[in-house]
Design goal:
It is built from 20 helices and 17 strands. By secondary structure, the protein is an alpha+beta fold. A hairpin with a 2-residue loop joins strand 13 and strand 14.
Length: 596
């Protein structure tokens, strides 16, 4: 892809029509877009009433600030900052909290995280991917850039510490990059695509060869290995935007016209009509955290979990007007269909596996049990003895005549966080992780996928990728950054003991091993053969996990509970074949039973 422009410093402000042009909108090569921009306020006749100012103490206002949720009812966003320091110990004499003493690993991690901060025009805008970006065989690659997905744990660590400026700047600058014209071989991807990463670099000022200025240079995939667009970047951006709004109460940012437009562009790109018959998002290989060929093309679980979470975030944040009514309706319909689809067809436990084992094939009927024509011979030999009697998981992919039975950690964990699973399924996933601790956690949490592709399967599926050899990198490697997502899921399900156990295992090694990107071998005993050290999201993932355990109530900035309202559009209610079994009905019964 050739980027038509970069962000260039300029003190002048643009009019709203220049920042948010009419569709299709992009900036030509001759136009400059300032890094400092303000959205001009809407006309007084159409401007909504201002929100009440957030009073940290709570004494200045009777009600918390809120955002109008698609015209139906106010969504209460109770800001969580500033929050009191939660401690376990109290001074017996002064009756004051005794601050918790940070461990050596935590102090080192905070030092590294702050050193990784990237400044643009004197203000923080993100963190680099790794501090030793060019230390491995002199190859710089793109580890010196700010990645959207990599910055999320860094952003959360800063937010949980009360440092919000860097997150706000990051959200706005990446939003501005979204509108850039993107082309590769005379073809432009859809509007709304967020960059995978960006870099701050110096460029000569026009007309003055002796002077330089800072510019933001984004990468939308045109420089990536395989030239794959980052589908997950926009989804992570929406998720982080909601977390920022919930923890800070900065609703003026969420209601800005450019922010609302950015959300809509991402969703329009994801919800666009196509030939697919399923509510899941169809993507190519390498379009998410697993950014190399690993046989996840189609409908990978990781993308579906993030997609569902982003839809729920957007449903809360979109302001209701004529321009958003249809989009909000589409979001609700997609949420209902997507959750039903994943809960019904991705879930595998011992009972479901036995059902697949007895599948009849070549069923031509609307009442078919084997809807995707899955051949029982696809059940891998390793799974027969590996699946425990108690618990289960969401498989990696479901397509016609194909089920990917590998366990993918990120997709399963984020399905718990977003309530894409039923409560019973969420409990089953954590039960499976606990039962298979040595396989999925081992000596370094957490396996990105299990098991590894080996022999002919590795050669065919990865194309003999020398980086994704068995039990390395994305092919069964152990990634410490997944700790924060595991911690989040454990807190939501009331199992912080599992998170503490995993963090304790990791903390013993991360400091001594210089915070590697990933670990190799089936149990994660070796530092990855091509792993960068001082990897920022390894550092940030560890810190975020620690902060979440210290302040578990703040997990709500990312989690969702079961939304019973989505039952109204459930697919089983619309079917004509009299289907009675429904995961959402089971979830409703379970929730109501728990409340009784």
């Amino acid at each position: 892809m050739a980027i038509a422009s970069t962000i260039r410093p300029c003190c002048s402000h643009l009019l709203l029509s220049q920042i948010i042009p009419k569709y299709p909108y992009h900036f030509s090569k001759s136009q400059k877009c300032p890094h400092r921009y303000e959205v001009v306020a809407q006309a007084a006749s159409t401007a909504p009433a201002p929100h009440p100012t957030f009073d940290p103490v709570g004494a200045g206002s009777a009600t918390p600030p809120h955002i109008l949720l698609h015209g139906l009812k106010p969504l209460v966003f109770t800001p969580l900052l500033p929050f009191p320091e939660k401690t376990r110990n109290v001074d017996p004499v002064r009756h004051e909290p005794i601050p918790r003493t940070e461990s050596v690993a935590e102090r080192e991690a905070w030092k590294l995280l702050k050193q990784s901060v990237v400044n643009y025009c004197g203000k923080p805008v993100g963190t680099v991917a790794a501090a030793d970006a060019g230390a491995f065989k002199g190859e710089l690659l793109n580890y010196d850039q700010v990645f959207i997905r990599d910055f999320v744990p860094s952003a959360l660590a800063f937010l949980l510490k009360g440092e919000t400026e860097i997150v706000r700047n990051f959200l706005l600058h990446t939003l501005q990059l979204q509108s850039w014209e993107k082309t590769v071989d005379c073809y432009s991807p859809g509007q709304g695509l967020m960059p995978a990463s960006f870099k701050v670099r110096a460029a000569p000022i026009d007309g003055n060869a002796d002077a330089e200025e800072e510019v933001l240079d984004p990468d939308f995939g045109e420089s990536a290995i395989g030239r794959v667009a980052p589908v997950d970047s926009g989804l992570w951006w929406i998720i982080l935007l909601r977390a920022y709004g919930k923890i800070t109460g900065d609703f003026s940012l969420l209601e800005r016209v450019d922010v609302q437009t950015g959300i809509k562009l991402i969703l329009n790109l994801c919800l666009s009509d196509g030939f697919d018959m399923f509510p899941t998002l169809l993507v190519t290989d390498g379009s998410c955290m697993i950014d190399r060929r690993m046989g996840i093309h189609g409908h990978p679980l990781e993308i579906q979990s993030l997609f569902y979470s982003a839809l729920r975030c957007a449903k809360e944040m979109l302001t209701f007007n004529e321009g958003s009514a249809n989009l909000i309706r589409a979001i609700k319909n997609r949420l209902s269909a997507l959750s039903f689809h994943v809960r019904e067809y991705y879930w595998v436990d011992l009972k479901k596996l036995n059902e697949i084992y007895r599948y009849k094939t070549e069923e031509y009927s609307q009442n078919a049990t084997n809807k995707f024509n899955i051949y029982p011979e696809q059940i891998p030999a390793w799974l027969v003895d590996w699946i425990p009697d108690r618990g289960g998981y969401l498989i990696g992919n479901v397509q016609p005549a194909h089920m990917d039975f590998r366990f993918f950690s990120l997709g399963n964990l984020w399905a718990i966080v977003s309530s894409l699973t039923t409560p019973k399924q969420a409990e089953g996933i954590l039960s499976l992780i606990e039962e298979k601790w040595d396989d999925l956690i081992g000596t370094m949490p957490l396996k990105i996928s299990y098991p590894a592709l080996e022999s002919d399967e590795w050669r065919i599926i990865t194309g003999s990728d020398p980086k994704n050899t068995p039990w390395s990198y994305h092919n069964g490697g152990s990634w410490p950054t997944l700790l924060w997502q595991f911690t989040l899921a454990c807190i939501k399900m009331g199992r912080p003991d599992l998170a503490k156990r995993a963090i304790s295992t990791a903390e013993k090694r991360l400091l001594d091993d210089n915070w590697p990107e990933y670990y190799d071998t089936p149990t994660g005993r070796f530092v990855g053969k091509q792993s960068r050290l001082y990897q920022t999201w390894t550092v940030a993932g560890f810190l975020t996990s620690k902060l979440l355990l210290e302040k578990p109530e703040l997990a709500s900035i990312l989690t969702f509970e079961e939304d019973l309202e989505l039952l109204e559009g459930c697919a089983c209610r619309l079917s004509r074949n009299g289907r009675t079994r429904c995961s959402r009905q089971a979830a409703r019964s379970q929730l109501l039973g728990n409340c009784a």
